[in-house]
Known about the structure:
By secondary structure, this protein is mainly alpha-helical.
Amino acid sequence: MTSNVARAAPEQAGNGPQLSSSAADFQPNSPIQAPAQVTNPRAVREAKLELLREFNLEIVQDLIASGWRVGASLLTHAAKFIEADDFLGAEHNRQRAREQINETNDLFRQFQEAERVAGFLREGPP
C-alpha cells in the first residue's frame, strides 16, 4: 500500500537539512528599514496647517449655511404667522430672522477676510 504523504528529502551526509532559497536569503542581523517618512519639520508643519485649514473651512461653511437656513426658516414662520393673522408673532420672527441673517453675514465676511489674509501669508505680497 502506498502512502499519499510526501517524504522529506533525505539529509546529505555532513550538510544538514536543505533550506529553501527564501529562507537561505534571510539574514537575522540585517537592519529593519522603516518606510519613507517626511523628515523636514517645516513640511510636516505646513501639511498639518493645510489639513487644519481645510477642516476649519468645512466647519465655517457648514455654520454659515446653517445660519442662513435658520434665518430662512424664521422668515417662513413669519409668513405662516401672517397667514394666521398673528402679526405680533410674525414681527417677532421677522426680527429674529433679520438678526440671524445679519450675524451669519458678519461671520461670512470675517471668514472671507481671514481667507484673504491666509492667502496673503501663504503666497506673499503681489
